[in-house]
Amino acid sequence: MDDECKMAPPQIEIISREGNRLRFILRNSSVALANAIRRACISEIYTTAIDLVAVVANNTPFHDEFIVHRIAMIPLTTDKSLIPKDKCTCGSRTGCEKCAVTLTLRAEARDQPVVVYSGDIQSERDTVKPVSDKIPIIKLARGQRLVIEAYARNGLGKWHAKWQPTTVAAYKYLPIIKIYPDRCDGCGKCVSICAPKAIHIPPGKGVPEVRDLLACTTCRDCMRECPMNAIEVSWDDTSFVFTLETTGTLPPEEVLKDAIGALISKFEEFRKELEELEVK
Ligand code: SF4
Ligand code: SF4
Ligand SMILES: [Zn+2]
Asked: Given this model, what pLDDT does residue 150 score?
């Protein structure tokens, strides 16, 4: 049995949640598992995004394709009740009422120029709408008009970036900082070189202490700077500090849960196929 097999089951400890950003520590894991979770968050989650656009009117100097690309990349809130694009049997390019939501955009600049924003997009369902009203799409000059009908469907990030729910999906090893007070002369060189301010010398103390362990990038500049060999930085290669931020299409906790669910179903599928092979 190798070390990985002897490990306790992986555990997730949430550190913080701010806006659409989640930070957590994944413990008892290998790099392979941490990276599989990261990749699944980016590419194996169904989200809702505009998939097909019909340009009904466009007398602006911008090509239809340019405007359509901008519109398709506007993040929408995800409606999980929609049947994913690859699972619906309707066979329609624009989808059916079970797998697609229609969005429309009608904008015209009559007397003065008009900036068209994501908030001008109307959706037939409240559950699917732009995550922000303030994303600029195009500026219309006087007399210009844009009419668009778009069909949003559920798809995977691995098919196209518009379905990727994440803006950040990254991890690093959990740092370990050891300070040896008996060797330290309190010169403070390690503190001055530490850009993320992971260590400090508290007032009234003669030796450095860890101020913010998770801020440490494990660059080891402090070790190189220390003349007394009194500080040591390493990392726990079974623990990973994750940062997961979404576009707002789904909350980050849901992305994480769905990513783990997607990995589990892949393994189950793999196991079934192996069993079938054994029978033959
Ligand atoms: S390894 Fe780098 S980031 Fe970490 S405490 Fe040392 S200098 Fe600071
Ligand atoms: S650089 Fe070394 S000796 Fe100086 S304060 Fe830091 S740990 Fe102590
Ligand atoms: Zn359908």
From this structure: 98
